[in-house]
Input
Amino acid sequence: MIKQKKSESSIAKIIFSGIQPSGNLNIGNYIGAISQWVEMQKDYDCIFSIVDYHAITVKQNPEILRKRIIEVTKIYLAAGIDPQKSIIFQQSTVPAHTELAWILNCYGTHIADLNKMTQFKDKTGDNKESASVGLYDYPVLMASDILLYGTDVVPVGEDQKQHVELTRDIARRFNGEFGPAFKVPTAVVRKEGARIMSLLDPTKKMSKSDDNQNNCISLLDSPENARKKIMRAVTDSGSDVVYDVENKPALANLLTIYAQLGIRQVNRLERDYAGKGYGDFKKDLADVVVKFLENFQAKYNAISDDEVLEILESGRQRAENIASKKLEEVRKLIGVR
Ligand code: TYM
Output
């Protein structure tokens, strides 16, 4: 991880990241994204968004969406995002995001760029023609999120790296035409845990929009349900607990989850389980996951909806203040002001 102590520079570097309130947040989101954010708060000025306008690129039930926006905010807080230090806000409450996205659609983004996006291809499969234009254009809204804040670093899971690469291209193209309006950001992904895989199919990413929730451990799953899911998780042939992504991808994934949630090195786990089988390992992993969830959910349950609404309003004001200035600068550059 890139480290920069605030004391080493009068201006701390800026972090921006976000999560869609589009499903039940899972331990993949926690390990790949949120847990990195918590650490980074010490060294950076951080902005974390609940990106609701990204969520509506696929159909959402309005009642459930409203509930999930609150839920995701509570998850940020329970994980340790500190609203006194970091800005936490709901994307749709700062209109500069969609306005800049429109401008970047016109300047900086080519259709060929969006045609390359693997997530769009994976999500739509053979149904590209009936996908929403929003789903196709979603990386441009993400670029706008990032570029509005002078972001230096974007901590994300592996699956979002391509979108940050595109953001860099868009920023460079815009700057090439109008001068240095945007900082060119860098994606940071965890060395371990950047791509947590499904519990039942280790070739597939653990995804909050998966129809089969047995593939995922949700952060709000009851601990006992989570235990069952771990015990039912697929393993590979053989019985030795060793980290081998090629030959034992399911076990490698479980070892990564254990290491990240249990705060132990993978090679230490290999030593601890030498001579023991998958059964013992999974039982202990289930204990680690249950303990993690109990802890996490105790914090989650102590946060009230009113507290969340207050934090989101204060975050909105702080975000709006930064974003509106950058947008006005861009409006002038392109000649509409
Ligand atoms: P989203 O909501 O799909 O996922 C949120 C974050 O969780 C990471 N993640 C994972 N990490 C490890 N293993 C997994 N199985 C896993 N699944 C998800 C994602 O990489 C992501 O970091 N477009 C983004 C949200 C977004 C954003 C932004 C992010 C919108 N604007 C600006 C950064 C900066 C998304 O859909 O993430």
In short: The chain has two domains: 6-189+306-334, 213-300.
